[in-house]
Amino acid sequence: MATDQVIFKNVSFRYAEDQPWVLKNVSFSIKQDEWVAILGHNGSGKSTIAKLMNGLLFPDEGTIYVHGIEVTPDTVWDIREKVGMVFQNPDNQFVGTTVRDDVAFGLENRGVDREIMLNRIEESLKSVRMTDYLFHEPHRLSGGQKQRVAIAGVLAIQPDLIILDEATAMLDPRGRKEIMMTVNDLREETKVNLVSITHDLNEIVGADRVIVMNDGEIWLETVPRELFKQEESLREIGLDVPFTAKVTNRLKDTVDFDQQPLTQKELLDQLWIFHSKQ
Amino acid sequence: MDISFKAVSHTYQPNSPFEYRALKDLSFNIQSGQFVAIVGHTGSGKSTLIQHLNGLLKPTSGEVMIGGYRLKAGEKTANIKGLREKVGVVFQYPEHQLFEETIEKDIAFGPKNFGATEEEIQTRLPKVLEAVNLDAKLLDRSPFDLSGGQMRRVAIAGVLAMEPEVLVLDEPTAGLDPKGQQEVMDMFYRLHHEKGLTTILVTHSMEDALKYADHVIILEQGKKHLEGQPEEIFVQKERLKQVQLDVPEEIQFLMDLKTRLGISITYDKHSVDDLVREIKAQIGGGR
Ligand SMILES: Nc1ncnc2c1ncn2[C@@H]1O[C@H](COP(=O)(O)OP(=O)(O)OP(=O)(O)O)[C@@H](O)[C@H]1O
Ligand SMILES: Nc1ncnc2c1ncn2[C@@H]1O[C@H](COP(=O)(O)OP(=O)(O)OP(=O)(O)O)[C@@H](O)[C@H]1O
Ligand SMILES: [Mg+2]
Ligand SMILES: [Mg+2]
C-alpha cells in the first residue's frame, strides 16, 4: 500500500434503503502524486465518490482507504486532516465573514503557527489572484471569485489529497487554465494526489488518468489520449470529446497521426508535418 | 420586450467601507426578439447587470427600461410583480433559486405565484421536464437531494414553467454534462425562435456566444468594452486579449491553419464534418 494513496475496494452506496444504488461495486486506486480526473453524466455518482473519500458519507458495502487509513466514522477526523475538498457550490463551505478569515479557518483548525498561517493565507490568495479581496465577505463575491477563494482555502492547508468537484465551473477559460496550472504545480512540488471532477473536456488534458463513470459504475479507466479516440461511445453515455479530438478523429482517414493530439497545438504540428510532405 | 440601459451605475453597499462600484455608466440597447450574449471575465459585472433585468437590483444612478417598466434610483417601480412575471431568470448557482420541499412544488412555484391554475400547471409540468430531460420519478424528491446537474435542470424547468417573454440565463450550462449542455442550449435557442423571446445569456463559452447569439456585449470592470455582432467581435484577438478573453476555439484553429499551413477557410458556422471536409480538400494527400 506504499504507493496507492486512495483505494476503493468493491464500494457500493445508496442514500437510503428504499432508494436505488448510486454506486455499484466500484473499485479503483490512485497512486501517490497522481492526478486523476473523474468524468461522467449528471447523476452518475461522481460527487458521491468525492464525499466518500472525505468521510462525509460511508460505504454500504466495500472499503475505502485514504493514505493507509480505512475511512470509518472513527477515523473521519484523521481523514479530513489529510483531505482538502472544494465543493460544487462554494457557498456551502464558507465559514468566515471575510475572505481572510475564511482561509484562516482551516489553518486554525489544524493548529498551524500564526507566522506560517499569515504566510500561507497570503500565498494561497495570491495564487488565485484574490489578494485585493481580503476583507470582502465571501458570500458577496461574484460566482467565479467565490470559487477562487474556496480553492485558496484548500491550497492553504496543504493537504495530502486535493479533491476538486467542478471547482472551476464558473471561471472563464483562462482563469480555469491558470488555476489548474497552479494546483498542478503544487501537486508536483509537494507530491499530493489530485482528484478533479469535471465536465470540462479541456481540463482533463493535464490529468495522468481518467475514470469515466456511467450510472454508478466505472465505465472506463484510461489516459486522456486514449479517451479522446472514443468519440462515439462517449457520446452514447452523455459525454463528448473536445473540438481538437473531433477534428482529429475525422481526419484520420487522410492524415497519419503519430499519436492522438491533446491540444490544438499538437494537432497543428502534426498537420504541418503531413502538409509539408505533400 | 425592448430593453435599454441608460448610463447605469450600480454600487454595492454604498456609503460603507465596503462600497463597491460594480457597474459604471453602462449604456446599451437590446431589441425585442434579440439573442444577446454577455461575456467578460470573473467579476466584470455580468451577474450584477442581469439582476437589474427583473428588478432584483436597481441602478444607483441612471435608468433601466424593460418594455414599459422603468427602474430608477429613488423611484418606485410600478407593478414590479408584472415585470417578474415576464422576465424569467436562471441564476448562476441553482441552489439560489430552489427552496420548496419537493421538486414538483419548486417547479410549480413560479407559475402559481403568478396566478396559473392547477390544471394549467399540470399541463406545463411534463413539457418542462422533457425540455430539461428530467425524470418524472424525481418529482416527489427534495430538490436538495439531487446531484449538481440535476439541480440545475430543476432550476431551469422552474423558469420555463413561468413561460416568460424575456429569458435571462446566467451561465445556465455550468454543471451540466456535455450532452446536457448542448441539448439545453439547443432547447433555449428553439424556444427563443418559436416563442419570439428576448434572450440574454451570460456565458464563459465564447463558442456558445458565437453559435447562438446575434449580438454580443463584452464587459470589463463594470464598463462596456466592446459590443457588436459575434462574427465581428470574435475575430478581434487583441481587443479580446486586453480583457483576458480568447477567440473561440474554432476561429483560433482557422487562424492558425492559415498562418501555419496557408490553408484559408472562412468561418461560416461550419459543422465539424463540413470543416474537416474543407481541410481535406486543401491539405492534399489525394484521398
Ligand atoms: N442527498 C441525496 N439524497 C438522495 N439521493 C441523492 C442525494 N445526492 C445525490 N443523490 C442521487 O445520487 C445519484 C448520484 O449523485 P451524484 O451527486 O454523485 O452525481 P454526480 O455524478 O456528481 O452528478 P453531477 O454531474 O450532476 O454533479 C443521483 O441520481 C442523485 O439523484
Ligand atoms: N452583494 C455584493 N456586495 C458587494 N460586492 C459585490 C456583491 N456582489 C458582487 N460584488 C462585486 O461586484 C463585482 C461584480 O460582480 P458580478 O457578480 O456582477 O461579476 P460577474 O461578472 O458575474 O463574475 P463571475 O463571472 O465571476 O460570475 C465583483 O468584483 C464582486 O466582488
Ligand atoms: Mg456532482
Ligand atoms: Mg456571475
Verbal overview:
The complex is a heterodimer of chains A (278) and B (287). Chain A contains ten helices and ten strands. Chain A has a six-stranded mixed beta sheet with strand order 6-7-8-3-9-10, with helices on both faces. By secondary structure, chain A is α/β, with parallel strands linked by helices. In chain A, helix 4 (114-127) packs antiparallel against helix 5. Chain A has two domains: 4-241, Rossmann fold, CATH 3.40.50; 242-278, no CATH class. The longest helix of chain A is centred in the middle third of the chain and has 18 residues, at 173-190. The N and C termini of chain A lie far apart (53 Å). By secondary structure, chain B is of the alpha/beta class. Chain B folds into two domains: 3-247, P-loop containing nucleotide triphosphate hydrolases (Rossmann fold, 3-Layer(aba) Sandwich), CATH 3.40.50.300; 248-287, no CATH class. Helix content of chain B is 38%, strand content 22%. Chain B is built from eleven helices and ten strands. Chain B has helices at 46-50, 80-86, 103-113, 118-131, 148-161, 178-194, 206-212, 230-233, 237-242, 249-261, 272-283; strands spanning 3-12, 20-30, 35-39, 61-66, 69-72, 87-90, 166-170, 198-202, 215-220, 223-228. In chain B, the strands form two sheets. In chain B, strands 6-7-8-3-9-10 form a six-stranded mixed beta sheet. A four-stranded antiparallel beta sheet of chain B has the order 2-1-4-5, with no helix packed on it. In chain B, a hairpin with a 2-residue loop joins strand 4 and strand 5. The longest helix of chain B has 17 residues, at 178-194. The N and C termini of chain B lie far apart (52 Å). Chains A and B meet through helix 5, helix 6, helix 9 and helix 10 of A and helix 5, helix 6, helix 10 and helix 11 of B. One magnesium ion (MG) binds at residues 46-47, 92, 170 of chain B.
